[in-house]
Amino acid sequence: MILGYVLTILGGVVVGGVVNWLSDQLPFLGGSDEDEEGAIGEISRPEPRGLTLPRCSKCGKQRHILSFLGVTAWLLGQRRCANCESRLSFRYLAVEIALAVIFCFLWNREGMTPMFGVLTFYTSLFVLISVIDIEHRLVLNIVMLPAFVFALIEVLISGRISIAEALVGYAIGQLVVMGFFLLGGVYLWIVNTARKEPVTEVAFGFGDVTLATFSGLVVGMPKVFPMLVLMIVLGGLIAFLYILYRAVIVRDYHPHIPIAYGPAIVLAAAMMLLW
Ligand SMILES: [Zn+2]
After folding, report:
1. Of 271, 227, 270, nearest to 125 (Cα)?
2. Of 50, 79, 114, which marks where a domain is finished?
3. pLDDT, tens digit, 9 for 90 and up, residues 93-122
4. How many domains does the chain divide into?
């Protein structure tokens, strides 16, 4: 029993390390679907290259082996890069601890069953998507395409929901969110006809449509409806808190601050999947 928890925590930390590593490297592999234009920030590091061992996010030098994982970097005092002295961000530790906690919760509920594997895979995937969306405002095709393939196979094999329920969930997710996407376009068109300098950020980017469609497929019929409602509520809440943070703490509020909606979508999907 205790051994099971220890192994589950270790598994969560290691998968968290893999999620951190992929979050660092996948956005620079190319093949990305730009979610919100103009908000890409610092995507101008050296040439895209294949996957390499974990590197310092500031200078690109390979990290010390003890700082491959956030947990070991913190525990063993290896947070600073040997080359540029910059510290490993808190995100590494947070992702590993979050996944270890979620894995324990799932292990406690599901035991060592195939469903444990399926649910830990989806939660890890959702964390990966959220981290990349928050840091780069991107939903990557290189993540979403394999995710769609996995979800289709999983639904066919596991029988968690029927394939018909999954496909109807897919269609409803796509229709509703496509509606938001088009409304966003209409909104931009109205704002831009009234302004001299055009606004280019899209409130709800195409990457969000892909993500909501995927979530609809995974969650399936009837749960796709509460998922969409949750998505809107959480999206509004996150946007409100973020704007409040920018206005009160950072003091640089302006309308049309780009906000990552990906986390709200995957959070809603995860809640429907787990409860
Ligand atoms: Zn460095």
Report:
1. 270
2. 114
3. 999 999 999 999 999 999 889 999 999 999
4. 2
Residue ranges in 159-223 assigned as alpha helix (H): 163-194, 206-219
Q: Which helix (H) or strand (E) holds 255?
A: none
Q: Which residues contact 38 (CB under 8 A, 6 or more apart)?
A: 200, 201, 258
Determine, yes or no, domain membership for 84. yes
In the structure, how many helices (H) and strands (E) does the chain have? 9, 2
86: CA distance to ligand 1 center in Å? 6
43 CA distance to ligand 1 centroid (A)? 17
Instruction: Assess if residue 149 is contained within a domain.
Output: no
Nearest CA to 258 out of 193, 188, 192, 197 is that of 188
pLDDT of residue 201: 60
Query: Which residues keep their CB under 5 angstroms from ion ligand 1?
Result: 56, 58-59, 81, 83-84
Q: Percent of the chain, pLDDT > 90?
A: 45
Give pLDDT < 50 ranges for the chain. 31-42, 44-45
- What do you get for the CA distance between the two ends of the chain, in Å? 24
Domain coverage including residue 259: 161-275
Q: Are residues 97 and 167 located together in one domain of the fold? A: no
